[in-house]
Amino acid sequence: MTDQTSASATPATGSAPADSNQGLDPVTGIQRDSVIDVQLPQPRTVSRIQGKRIRIPAGAPTGVHEHNGPVVGVVLEGTAVMQIVGQEPVTIETGEPFYEPEGVRMLRFDAGPDGLVFLGFFPVGPGEEPTLTPLD
């Protein structure tokens, strides 16, 4: 997986900012590794984060769309092919994170040949619900 947006998103293979709560704790044996670190292009008021398990059958296209807020997630099963307008498609494998920026035209977030199951997390403001708007 590569950096997926013009906004800053550091994937698991990138270098995240220094984090004192990172790596192996020699006392407990607990390992903590950053897998994604997203710098939002604009600050946003968040009053809650809604998480959804989403299943897309093999070959089913999501179509061109945009979200009313940022989306951060991780692929649980299968693969996704994600493409942001102006960028090349990126394949997201099982276990890899992804980021879809707020208000940006997503050309695709399609399931691979074995289908797709992912967790999507949607930060929303007061009185707001996460929305996916289909576009032509």
TrEMBL record:
It comes from the Bacteria. This is Cupin type-2 domain-containing protein. Coiled coil: none annotated. InterPro entries: Cupin_2 (IPR013096), RmlC-like_jellyroll (IPR014710), RmlC_Cupin_sf (IPR011051). Residues 1-18 have a biased composition (Low complexity). Residues 54-104 form the Cupin type-2 domain. Residues 1-39 are annotated as: Disordered. The lineage of its organism: Bacteria, Bacillati, Actinomycetota, Actinomycetes, Micrococcales.
